[in-house]
């Protein structure tokens, strides 16, 4: 695919990112509302249940056209969905810049959009759908076999160790505090993420997740009206962020650290 002009590839990457972002918002909405995921059907306004036309569901564009409100009941809608679409767009362009046209871009684009969708669901419900974590794990292991990086051995080892490590953490926390600290969703998510980063990338990914979630905890606790140490934040989004950061810049960072 050397012959594809750069600008054309970036255009394709932008459209693909926005479209996948649009699909991700449909998945998020239906999963949270417990509606069938794959049945054809239009999106509805979460407040007045009015069916949205296709013109009201174009990624990002619709949000600005409607000024972020439902045309019928004037409730603000779509803010977080636009954030999902923009995240997928940014991810697609960053991958395109980093890997150029090819299979790696396509595969990581899909995996990253799954992580984005999972993160938003985790933020809203403190749950991670199996379709994302286990489906993503199968896809990531498949990718580990066909893509040159991180190589299938590292990918399988990463999936096994990521899952096992978080399973042990979950058990240990339960024994220590007699309550759930980490969800089973996080354990399954780590199988997927381990397969993506490989065993080599796992420590850096978890470190980045711990650092960013620690920072977020502090910001959360200092917020007016916060419940101090009782504040609960989901860990899945930070693991996803760490993983996506590693996919783009992990090798570089490991290079700087001489590892
Ligand atoms: Zn409405």
Automatic annotation (TrEMBL):
Q: Describe the location of the Prepilin type IV endopeptidase peptidase domain by residue ranges.
A: 109-215
Q: Which GO terms describe its biological process?
A: methylation; signal peptide processing
Task: Cite the EC number.
Answer: 2.1.1.-, 3.4.23.43
Q: How does it sit in the membrane?
A: Multi-pass membrane protein
Transmembrane residue ranges: 6-28, 105-121, 128-146, 189-222, 234-257
Its recorded reaction(s) are: Typically cleaves a -Gly-|-Phe- bond to release an N-terminal, basic peptide of 5-8 residues from type IV prepilin, and then N-methylates the new N-terminal amino group, the methyl donor being S-adenosyl-L-methionine
The cellular location(s) given in this protein's UniProt record come to: Cell inner membrane; Cell membrane
Per the annotation, which location comes first and is thus the protein's main one?
membrane
Which residue numbers delimit the Prepilin peptidase A24 N-terminal domain? 16-99
Family, per the entry? Belongs to the peptidase A24 family.
Q: Which PANTHER family match?
A: PREPILIN LEADER PEPTIDASE_N-METHYLTRANSFERASE-RELATED, TYPE 4 PREPILIN-LIKE PROTEINS LEADER PEPTIDE-PROCESSING ENZYME
Q: What is this protein called?
A: Prepilin leader peptidase/N-methyltransferase
Species for this entry: Pseudodesulfovibrio aespoeensis (strain ATCC 700646 / DSM 10631 / Aspo-2)
